[in-house]
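Recall the central idea of this unit: under ordinary conditions, the amino acid sequence of a chain determines the structure it adopts. In this exercise we apply that idea directly, starting from the sequence alone.
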Amino acid sequence: MRLKSTYLFILIMISLSFTASIKPVKINSVFQLLTTQTEFEAGSDIVLKFSANNDSKPNLYLSNSYGSIILKPIIKRSFLSYLIPKSFGNKTGMIHWKFLSDMPLSGKLNIYSKQEVLTMESYLGPPSIEAGGIDYTMLVVIPTDTYDNPLKDSTQISVKHQFLTNESHDTIYMKNGISYKNIYSETKTGRILISSECLGKNSKEYDVNVLPAIPTNFMITYNRNHEYADGNQITNFSTTIIKDRYDNIVSDGTYVDFFINNASNHVLKTSGSTINGIATAKMIHPDHQDIWEIKAFIEGMAESDSISLVYKQAVLDFQVDFSENHRTLTIGPLKSFMNQMIPDGLEVKLHVYQNDIKIKTLYKSSFEGYTSFKLNLDSFPKNTYTFKIETAGIEKTYQNIKL
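Accordingly, the structure predicted from this sequence is:
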């Protein structure tokens, strides 16, 4: 009985062993990259070719700095081919690929630019710099190929610039997609002409203006017809030729302020802009004896020496006549330094007081050497007033005038 049980056990084990031997075996897919080239020129036809040991058709995942895509294979016998789209193959940079299968197969391709120049992208700035050799402008040059890719690093670019009688030729190199050159000013003013060339392709011509540096201190002069304070004539102020420290004449339009301090510690101001380095300004004469101290400034940069002008009294005296019950005051004749009538426009002030309190001030301008004030009844009712008349720095007071 025990022997029979033993035979039965052996038969069961043999049956199980036979069943296990006829179960299907899973065969792993094996792919091998046949394309050995990893660097391609932009615009090339790029095909990744693989060998396969079965009928598996995995997709290929591609990505670069512009985006990503999934490619289906082209099957020929036991080979799989993947054609890289032009949108990926025309742009420089790295392309990463990966099999979308259970086999962890991946890699990368490098696309480099085509070594021929279609366009020369050039940028220059600033368009104006200061003379002296410290300030500079920067030229940026980006030569690009047919597919708008910057040329590869170390590509040579020739930069030429001309200033006055000097011509310079420099070589710069592409790095990280660009090339640049700092072009410094010289001590003279003028215009720098700049161009660049790469692989036989030339850029357009650029120009940079070299302007004068900060102005240096300067002198001022004056010119006037006479020295009398007639309130009519003009005094002209002028600077010497204003230059920078490199002896360049400052740019036209440089603004110069002339400040005038008078004997009353009041400040007058006039101004002018330079033409050929010289600025001029005008100021009307005072209408009374005065002393002026004049100094000019280019704000925050330069200043002039100080000059002093004396203006003599032109009108030495005047008469006042009352008429029409003292309601009409006639001032004149107002005579100037040659005993001639003062030019029209001299200001005359009439201060009216009542009980030592100023109630009104009237203003008139002279005409043909005279001026007059008419005091109407509505503004000045019947009463006793004090009048103070002021013109050309002279004052006359008339008290207890009954209207």
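Residues 16-27 have pLDDT under 50 and may be disordered.
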